[in-house]
Amino acid sequence: MLKMKKWVAAVMVIALLGSVVGVIPASAAPAGSGSLDGDWTYDQDAFGKQNTYYNYIEDHKLKGTPSPNHVIPVSMPDFTLVESEYELSGTKMYDSYEGVEDSANVLYVGAKGEKITYKLEVPETGLYGLEMVYYPLATVATQYQFGLFVDGENPFIEANSCVLNRVWVNDPIVQDEFGDDLRPQPQQAPEWRTQFLYDQKGVHGNLKFYLEAGTRELTLVFDGTPVLLKALTFKQESPIISYADYKTKYEAEGAKMSAGHLELFQAENYYRQSSAMLWPCADRTNSLTLASKGEEYSYKNVQLNYGGGSQWKEPGHWISWKITAPEDGFYNIGVKYKQGYLDGLFSSRRIYIDNVVPFAELNSIRFDYTTNWKNQLLGDENGAYSIYLTKGEHTITMENVIGDLSDTMGVLQAVVNNLNELYLSIVMITGNSPDPYRDYYLEKQLPNLSADLKANAELLYAEVKRLEAVVGAKGAESAYFDDVAFNLNSYAENIPDITYKGRLTQLKNDINGLSAKLTTYQEQALDIDYIAVLSEGEQMAKTTMNVLQWIVYQVKSFFASFAKDPSEKEDVTSIRVWISTGIDQFEILKNIITDEFTSKYGIEVNLELNGGSLINALAGGTGPDVMLGQGST
User: Fold this and answer.
1) Mean pLDDT, rounded, for 580-588
2) Per-residue pLDDT reduced to its tens digit, 445-482
C-alpha cells in the first residue's frame, strides 16, 4: 500500500511540474540535442505558392514568348459536349439566331454545368491571351461567369470565375410630381462584344494562358446564363503606340489643333454602361454642380447631377458617354471630378475613344484624392494630351482599372502571404492562445522568423516611399503601412515576447488589416460632374464657390429646408413607414420606393428609421401605418 502511495505521489509531482514549465517536445530541445535540425522549419521559396495567377505567371513567363503572328482560332462547330447534371442541354450551333443580327454560325450556350471542349493546334509554346466574341442575351442575370480548363486542368484560381460583361442603357431622367429627379431604370442593350478575358480583381489586367506546342484541349464550363459565342481566339494583344507616335502620325496627315471650342457633356447622361448598378447620383454640397440638362443647381428639388459615384468601383466596370466635335482636329479632354474614397491615393481609369485606346498613356489615367470638385485635363507632367477627333459624334468610355496601384497590391499580396505562413508556423507551436509565461523557444524552432519579419517590414517601407513619390504626399494609406512595418520590426527585435500581452493577436490583426487594404484598393470609385471637349487655351469653369457664392448657398439652403413637406400637399396620398433595420437597408429601400413605387402609384411614402417601441407608439397615437423588420413577437 505504501509503495502504491509513493507511485501516485511521483506521478502527481511530474504532472505539477509539467503544468508549470511545460513539457518540452523533442523538436523544442536546446541546440546540441540532435533533434532540432529540420524540425518546425519552413521553406521561404514555398511562400505564396498557392495556385494563383501571380504564381502561374512567375512560373511560366520565362518559358518563351510566342510570335505576335501566331493566332489560334477555335473552330466553333467542332466541340464535344458533356451535358449538364442540373438541367436539359440547349447547347448547339445556329446557322442564324432569331432576332440577333450578324449571328451566322454561332454557338448557343444555356445549360448550367455543361462542359464544352475544343481541340486546338498550338504552333509555338508560350503565353497567349484569349479573345472572345459574344452576344449577351437579355436575361435576369447581371453578368456571365464560367470556368476554363486547359488539358483538363484548371491553370489558376482566377480561371474558375471568368467574367463576360453585359451592356446596359439607362432610361431618360424624369421628375416626379414634386419636381425631384427619379433615378433612371437600366435596360439591357445586347450587342456583339469583343473582349479579352481579364482578372476580376484588376491587378493583372488581361489574363494569359500557357500553351505548349502541339494539340491542346480547351474546356469551358458555363453557369447556365444564355449567351451566344461567335469566336474564341488565342492570340497576343496588339501593341498600343505611344502618345508621341500618335501625335506625330496625325500631324503628318495635316491635323491641326482646333480653336475657340469648349463644350460640356453632363456625366449623369450615360450612353452605355457595363452594370445595372451604375446610376447617376445627386450632389447637394456645391451650387456649381450642374444638372443633367446643364441647368443651375436647385435648392428645393433633388437633382441627379453627377455620374459614377461609390458604386462605380469594381475593376472592369465602364461607363460611356456621347461627345461631339464641330470639326476635324486635335482637342483636349477635361474632366470635372471628385475622388474622396482613397485618402492619399488615387483612382485610375482607362480611356477609350470610339471603343479604342488611342495611345498607351490612356491605359491608366490617375484621379488624385480630393474631397472637393476639381478640374483635370487628360495629360501628363508635360501638359494636356491632344486627342484627334473627326467632325461629328463620338463615344468616350472610362473603364475602372487598378493602374499604378497594381504594384502596391502585388507587394501587399506577397506580404500577406508571407505573414500568413509565419503566423501559422508560430501557432503550430504556441496554439491560438499561448501562455504568456511559457518559453516556447521560438527563436530556436523558427530560426529565420526574425529575419523574415524584418524582410516583410522592409517591403512595406519601400512601398511607402514609392507611393509617396508617385502621389507626391503622404496619406492615411501609406501611414498605415508605416505602422504595420514598425510593428513587424518590433516583433522581430524580441521573438520570445511575441506571445506576451496579446502581441500574437496584434500580428494577426496586422495581417487582417493588410488583407482588407487589398479589397479597398480594388474598389476605386470616382465621381464625375461633366466631361469637357475643348480647344487648347480654353479654360474650364472654376469648381469651388467664392465667399459670396458660399453665403448665398448657405442662406438659400437654410430657407429651402423649411419648404412644405410634399406629403402635406393637397390631394396627395401618403403613408408613414417605420423600418428597424440598418442604415444601408434603409437607403436601398428608400431608393426602391422612390423609383418604383411612388412614381408608379402616386403614393408618397415617409420612410423613417426607428428602433423605438411600436406598442408604446401605437398606444400614444404616434405609430406608423406600416412597420417593417419587426418580429411577430
Assistant:
1) 75
2) 889 999 999 999 999 999 888 888 877 777 777 888 99
Q: Which amino acid is present at 373? A: W
CA dist., res. 504 & res. 499, Å (int): 6
The three grid cell numbers given for residue 449, joined into one nine-digit string: 522568423
Q: Is the pLDDT of residue 62 over 90?
A: no
Q: In degrees, to the nearest 5, what angle opens at C-alpha 86 toward C-alphas 82 and 91?
A: 45
R_g of the chain, CA atoms, integer Å: 31
CA dihedral 547, 550, 551, 553 (to 10 degrees): 160
How confident is the model at residue 599, as a pLDDT? 66
Q: How many CB atoms lie within 10 A of CB 606?
A: 15
Those residues whose C-beta lies under 8 Å from the C-beta of residue 23, and which sit 6 or more positions away, are: none
Of the CA atoms within 13 Å of residue 556, those in its CB half-sphere come to 15
CA distance linking residue 120 with residue 129, whole number of Å: 14
Is 416 a residue whose pLDDT tops 70? yes
Report the distance separating Cα 28 and Cα 420, nearest Å: 22
Q: Give 489-545 pLDDT, tens digit per residue.
A: 999 998 888 888 788 889 999 999 998 888 888 889 999 999 999 999 999 999 989
Whether the predicted pLDDT of 14 surpasses 50? no
Residue 217 pLDDT exceeds 90 = yes
Sheet containing strand 573-579, edge to edge, reads 603-609, 573-579, 626-628
Contact 405, 361 (CB under 8 A): no
Tell me how far the alpha carbon of residue 239 is from its chain's centroid.
Answer: 25
Beta strand extents in 212-306 (DSSP E only): 214-222, 227-235, 262-266, 272-273
Q: Which of 266, 342, 284, 318 is nearest to 525 (CA)?
A: 342
Residue 582 has pLDDT above 70, yes or no: yes
* Strand, coil or helix: 322: strand
- Give the burial class of 68: count Cβ atoms within 10 A of its Cβ; 0-12 exposed, 13-18 middle, 19 or more buried: exposed
CA distance 215 to 123: 9
Q: How far is CA 129 from the centre of its chain?
A: 21
CA distances from 491 to 151, 306, 415, 425, 464 (A): 46, 48, 15, 15, 20
Question: What is the phi/psi pair of residue 143, to 5°?
Answer: -155, 170
Specify the pairing of strand 392-401 against strand 92-94. unpaired
Q: How many residues does the chain have?
A: 633
3-state secondary structure of 422: helix
pLDDT of residue 490: 92
Using a 10 angstrom Cβ sphere, with 0-12 exposed, 13-18 middle and 19 or more buried, the burial of residue 335 is buried
Q: How confident is the model at residue 42 (pLDDT cuts 50, 70, 90)?
A: very low
Nearest in space to 146 (alpha carbons), one of 125, 160, 131, 158: 160
